[in-house]
């Protein structure tokens, strides 16, 4: 198939450091190429891919200090994709509702993966108006605020099978927090849990500009606690060692997490996850097999004491069974083929 993948421009594909959506777009794109498909990736110019790269900005917008209006390159990209749409069998967008108005007026099948939270009422009108656009959810849980939307399929994220492996000779000795420091990720809970469990906590996490005040006012003072080590943001090449040497990953979220890529990154390393029961957690985790699903800090502390019950090899095996990028790509191809077979006509916009 001739497939267009249209990525956000905020980060490169794959991102240099943090960037969940762009990371998943990369994994999917590379697996589609490996399966023999003709893939064009519309992304920032500093992206790296085995597909044909169509550079839509010189570099990731987050890194380009000269960009005053980050929306301008994105809308220019949409117009460029539209002018090339006839070259493809299917267009796969990762830009939320941004493509809808343009691409419902052209004949090439298109689909959009929603990567974020959907409990924001101000976005619902876009999905109500463009109710013929097929949507991919990344968990069934993610759909709940918009259960009425035009969902085509839930496709869980996946990682390249050999991207992360359990580190040979690892000696797990601490608890880990990985990802992003923000109010909904609740690193403060992780610090409390580790302290009460008598464990060291290593924090490898990014601080977004939008969360800088929260970090400085609420979290930075906690980093001086003797059981806390703040490492900062790390890249993929550092994750296997970081996770393999952790007794567990703490995922004490306080929001409807759409997926939680870090959970399967830990599973790939054979590392258990102790996660709060929100959002996609019950879909991704298997309580008592890949970790423990808890309701509060007391239960999380108790779960730390139960970690020896879990088999790290069984956790890795469960990752291979459910969360590889190959499985993710094959599920996407099946959906693309269904969209092409359907040959959906363009939506006709009725006069007001």
TrEMBL record:
It comes from the Bacteria. Keywords: Transferase. This is Glycosyltransferase family 4 protein. Residues 169-303 form the Glycosyl transferase family domain. PANTHER family: BLL5217 PROTEIN, GLYCOSYLTRANSFERASE. It holds the Pfam family Glyco_transf_4. Residues 18-126 form the Glycosyltransferase subfamily 4-like N-terminal domain. It comes from Roseicella frigidaeris.
């Amino acid at each position: 198939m001739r497939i267009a993948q249209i990525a956000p421009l905020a980060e490169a594909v794959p991102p240099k450091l943090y960037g969940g959506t762009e990371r998943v777009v990369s994994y999917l794109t590379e697996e589609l190429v490996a399966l023999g498909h003709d893939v064009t990736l519309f992304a920032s110019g500093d992206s790296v891919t085995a597909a044909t790269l169509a550079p839509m900005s010189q570099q990731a917008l987050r890194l380009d200090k000269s960009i005053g209006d980050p929306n301008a390159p994105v809308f220019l990209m949409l117009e460029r994709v539209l002018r090339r749409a006839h070259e493809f069998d299917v267009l796969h967008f990762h830009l939320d509702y941004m493509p809808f108005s343009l691409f419902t007026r052209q004949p090439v099948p298109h689909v959009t993966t929603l990567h974020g939270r959907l409990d924001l009422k101000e976005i619902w009108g876009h999905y109500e108006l463009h109710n013929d656009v097929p949507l991919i959810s990344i968990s069934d849980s993610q759909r709940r605020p918009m259960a009425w939307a035009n969902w085509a399929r839930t496709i869980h994220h996946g990682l390249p099978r050999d991207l992360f492996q359990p580190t040979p000779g690892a000696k797990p000795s601490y608890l880990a927090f990985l990802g992003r420091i923000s109010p909904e990720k609740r690193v403060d809970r992780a610090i409390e849990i580790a302290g009460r469990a008598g464990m060291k906590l290593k924090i490898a996490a990014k601080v977004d500009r939008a969360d800088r005040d929260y970090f400085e006012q609420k979290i930075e003072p906690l980093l001086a606690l003797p059981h806390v080590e703040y490492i900062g943001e790390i890249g993929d090449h550092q994750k296997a060692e970081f996770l393999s040497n952790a007794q567990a990953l703490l995922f004490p979220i306080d929001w409807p997490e759409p997926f939680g890529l870090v959970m399967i990154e830990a599973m790939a390393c054979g590392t258990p996850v102790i996660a709060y029961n929100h959002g996609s957690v019950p879909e991704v985790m298997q309580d008592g097999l890949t970790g423990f699903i808890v309701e509060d800090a007391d239960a999380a502390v108790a779960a730390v004491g139960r970690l020896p019950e879990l088999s790290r090899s069984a956790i890795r095996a469960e990752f291979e069974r459910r969360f590889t990028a190959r499985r993710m790509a094959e599920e996407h191809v099946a959906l693309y083929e269904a969209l092409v077979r359907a040959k959906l006509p363009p939506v006709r916009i009725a006069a007001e």
